[in-house]
Predict the structure of DNA-3-methyladenine glycosylase I.
Amino acid sequence: MSNLYTGPDGKPRCGWCAATPEYVHYHDNEWGFPVDDDRRLFEKLCLEGFQSGLSWRTILAKRENFRAAFHGFDYTRIARFGERDVQRLLQDAGIVRHRGKIEATINNAQRALELVEREGSLAAFVWRFQPVKPLAKPQVVSTSPESVAMSKTMKKLGWRFVGPTTVYAFMQAMGLVNDHADGCTFRTKADQARKRFKLPAV
C-alpha cells in the first residue's frame, strides 16, 4: 500500500485510508488529534482490546453498537456489570461476542475507577506517557518505549488486553503521538491541534 492516498477531494491522506471509505472520515476527524475526555479514552482502550486479532474496520463498523451495549462506555456503569450483563452481551450480534474481551472491559472499568480516584482522571494518567521527542519517521513502528511502559504500568494495576501494540495504537488514535504520514494533509492539522492542547493536570 502506498504511504499516501488521494481522497475524493484531492487531498493526500495516510495510505491506510484507501482500505474503506469509512476510514476517511475517521482519519480526518479523529485519528491523531489529542483527546483528554476520560470516557473517550476509556472507549478507545476498550475498542483496541476488542480489535485484538481483528481489523479496525470491523470494530469501526460496530462502534455505535458497542456504544449502545456498553452505555456509551460510561465506566462507572460498566464497573457494576455482572454475569447477567455478560450473558446479554454474548447474545448481542452487533458487537464482538468474545467472553474474555467482554469480561476484560468490565474489569478495566473497575480499574479505571480506581485509577481516577488516585490520579484525578484517566487523562492525567495516560498523558504522562506522551513521548518527549517526536517520532523520527511516521508509521514505521507498532510499539514504542512509552507504549511498553504504559502497558507494563496498566498490567500491574490489573488492566487486561493492554499489550504494548494495543497501547501504541491507542496512542496513535488519541493524539499522544502524531503518526500521520509525511505529506498527509492532516499531519499539519494534528500538529496544530497538539500545540493548542493543554495537558491534563497531574
Summary: Residues 99-119 form the longest helix (21 residues).
